[in-house]
C-alpha cells in the first residue's frame, strides 16, 4: 500500500480515522523510515507551535477582527457552495504550520531585491548569516533569524529567515543564495506595524510546499554548513 506524504502528516496530527487510520498505522509500524518521518513531523509541529503560541494569545488586530466578525445571513447558492467545497478538498494540506498564525498570515510576494548583490540574490550581510548561522545556536535577539533549513525538490539547500527588512526563503545555487520568496518585515514604519510572526507563518507554509522531506535537524544542518551547503 502506498503511503503519501499527506497521509503521514494527517496521521501525525491525529486527523485520520477509521479504516484509513488503521491502514496507515500498520504501514508505519512496519517501516522504520515512515516512523522517522512521523517523529520528524511531530517534532517540527511542536517546535512551530511553541514559536507561535504567544501570537495565539494576543488579541486579533482591529482590521482582522472586523474581517472575522459575524455578518447578516444571506441566500446561499447551493451549486456554488458545493463547487467551493470541492476546490478546498483539492488544496494541499499544510497541517504542520500553526493554525492561528496561518489565519493571520499576510500575502506572499516574489522577492526582487535591489542593491550590491546580483538581482534575485541575498545581499552580503544576509548571505553571511545564511552561510554560517545555525538554528540551534543563534541568539534570541539576532537581527536576522533562521527559521529552518530544508532541501527542495531539486536537491538544493534552502533556508527560511526572518528580519525587520523582510522575511523570506533563499536557496543555495552555484552563484549564491537565490531569494525565492518573501513576506513583509516586522516593522515597515512607526505607524504601520505588522506582526513579523504572521509573515513568518506564510513563509513557513511556502517552505513546506517547496520541501522534499522534513526540515533539517540540528545535526544535519551543521553537516550541511560544514559542506558549504552543497
From TrEMBL:
- Name recorded for this polypeptide: Anti-sigma factor
Q: Which chain regions cross the lipid bilayer?
A: 94-112
The UniProt keywords, alphabetically, are: Membrane, Transmembrane, Transmembrane helix
The taxonomic lineage of its organism, from the top, reads: Bacteria, Pseudomonadati, Pseudomonadota, Alphaproteobacteria, Sphingomonadales
Source organism, top-level taxon: Bacteria
